[in-house]
Design brief:
By secondary structure, the chain is an alpha/beta fold. It contains 17 helices and 14 strands. The strands form three sheets. It has a six-stranded parallel β-sheet with strand order 3-2-1-4-5-6, sandwiched between helices. A six-stranded parallel β-sheet has the order 11-10-9-12-13-14. The radius of gyration is 23 Å and the shape is globular. The relative contact order is 0.09. Bound molecules: nicotinamide-adenine-dinucleotide. The site of nicotinamide-adenine-dinucleotide has 26 residues, from α1 and α4.
């Protein structure tokens, strides 16, 4: 099939590249000239494991193209995918201007009947709006929301938990089944429904996951106040098969380009329809509190933040991505600098994006290596559980940090380190809702279980 993908971002690039690897002829179109120029030369503008090899393979095979224009033969594509951004507006609702612009472009470009597949995350009813823009052009809209997890996106494309297809006609459903046939999905991994339910499924999934995280974060604050331990609480509740162990970790609050915006957009959708989504709104409020909790904990442990140097390990909102959108590191950095601290950050992939974001802010620095970030620091905060941070040399950490005011502080905001390992090296330990250096608790925590990747 001949396909055009609008948007060369995390979703569009992975989708277009994946579809070309399935044998389709694909053009990935974007209005960002720098991005397209870089892709044309085989340079991938984002960090996504496994993606570069796949892009190069598609380009070598002559099946994958990048352009800022859509010309013959792609004006006669079988389907146009919309994978452009849907950022939050002031009031939390989704800004659909890029989706509408893409739909208008498709309307003026397409020279034969085709399907317009909306992959962007859009509020319920958006496909109807897109269909109106397409009017009676022989173009039929299909909802096919994206569920990929950054850092594992290539794997998610080829082995998705499920594909959701929302269409009004049997013809459109049949087309989508044929398109994805090489993925060999069957049973409940292929959810065929109407466009409105399909649009809502995406928000419902993200809101459910965000609520789970906020619930655990709220419990972590209770554990802190009650002198209980969130590790044990997690293991205790997760062993109930109705709850399950996955996605049950306390941390610095969820971030990324999806959960924060999608949770707020769902609340806004509910409000516009006269339905108050109280649980979802509370998940958002709890998430805001968790960010402040980390800053407050640091202040409590250090006595004062003013004049302190604080090292941050992890700027990306999760491991294996360079994406810093809504990352906990951004809010924490702002809060610390506002309270008078100097921040020195490190990240294996997202450092450049972080440095660009804080270009104008004095008191924020990027270190060349993880240990370099520690030189003279009074506290180290672990914010992203990259594999390279999982088993650090705590003695080296202790040597690099400023111990003039007593044992330097290690704040493990992902709860991946054992308190006893930290304190044994002459450091102070704090986690999120865990007791510091309690050997009894440490003995009970199964570290292999802690190392389960929790991709968002
Ligand atoms: P992104 O910001 O990385 O990429 C969006 C791209 O669209 C940009 O390159 C931009 O230049 C381009 N664009 C904007 N207007 C355009 C137009 N009119 N024509 C062509 N290109 C245009 O965004 P993303 O992270 O890929 O997300 C895209 C959508 O997918 C969003 O709705 C998002 O919520 C959803 N989503 C994202 C993820 C994720 O993990 N990133 C996962 C699932 C769903």
């Amino acid at each position: 099939m001949r396909l055009v993908v609008f948007g060369a971002g995390y979703v569009g690039l992975v989708t277009g590249t994946g579809l070309s690897d399935l044998g389709h002829e694909v053009l990935v179109y974007d209005i960002n000239q720098a991005k397209i120029a870089s892709l044309e030369c085989g340079r991938i503008p984002i960090f996504e494991p496994g993606l570069a090899d796949l892009v190069h393979r598609g380009q070598r095979a002559g099946r994958l193209h990048f352009s800022t224009g859509i010309e013959e033969p792609f004006d006669q594509a079988d389907a146009y995918f919309i994978a452009v951004g849907t950022p939050p507006r002031e009031d939390g609702s989704a800004d659909l201007s890029a989706v509408q612009a893409a739909a208008s472009s498709i309307r003026s470009i397409a020279r034969k009947p085709a399907f317009v597949v909306v992959k962007s995350t859009v509020p319920v009813g958006t496909c109807d709006v897109v269909q109106e823009i397409l009017s009676c052009s022989g173009l039929e809209v299909v909802s096919n929301p994206e569920f990929l997890k950054e850092g594992d996106a290539v794997n998610d494309f080829f082995r998705p938990d499920r594909l959701v297809i929302g269409a009004k006609s049997d013809r459109a459903h049949a087309f989508m089944r044929e398109l994805y046939a090489p993925l060999q999905l069957c049973g409940d991994r292929l959810v065929a429904t109407d466009p409105r339910s399909s649009e809502l499924i995406k928000y419902a999934a993200n809101a459910m996951l965000a609520t789970r995280i906020s619930f655990m974060n709220e419990l972590s604050r209770l554990c802190h106040a009650a002198d209980a331990d969130i590790h044990s609480v997690r293991l205790g509740i997760g062993s109930d098969s109705r709850i399950g162990n996955r996605f049950l970790y306390a941390g610095p609050g969820y971030g990324g380009s999806c959960f924060p915006k999608d949770v707020q957009a769902l609340v806004a959708t509910g409000r516009s329809l006269g339905v108050e989504l109280e649980v979802t709104a509370a998940a958002h409020r709890a998430n805001e509190k968790q960010g402040a909790f980390v800053a407050d904990q640091l202040e409590e442990a250090l006595g004062t933040i003013a004049g302190r140097t604080i090292a941050i390990w992890g700027c990306a909102f999760k491991p294996d991505t360079d994406d810093i959108r809504e990352a906990p590191a951004l809010k924490l950095t702002e809060a610390l600098v506002a309270r008078g601290a100097t921040v020195v950050a490190h990240d294996p992939e997202a450092g450049a994006n972080y440095a660009r974001h804080f270009d104008d802010l004095t008191g924020v620095h990027l270190a060349g290596s993880d240990y370099d970030a520690l030189d003279g620091a009074h506290a180290l905060v672990l914010l992203t559980e990259w594999r390279c941070y999982r088993a650090p040399n705590f003695s080296e950490i202790r040597m690099r940090m400023d111990a003039s005011g007593g044992a330097p502080l290690v704040f493990d905001a992902r709860n991946i380190w054992k308190a006893a390992d930290v304190t044994r090296a002459g450091l102070r330990y704090r986690g999120i809702g865990v007791r510091g250096a309690d050997p009894a608790v440490d003995a009970r925590v199964d570290v292999s279980d802690l190392e389960l990747p929790e991709a968002v």
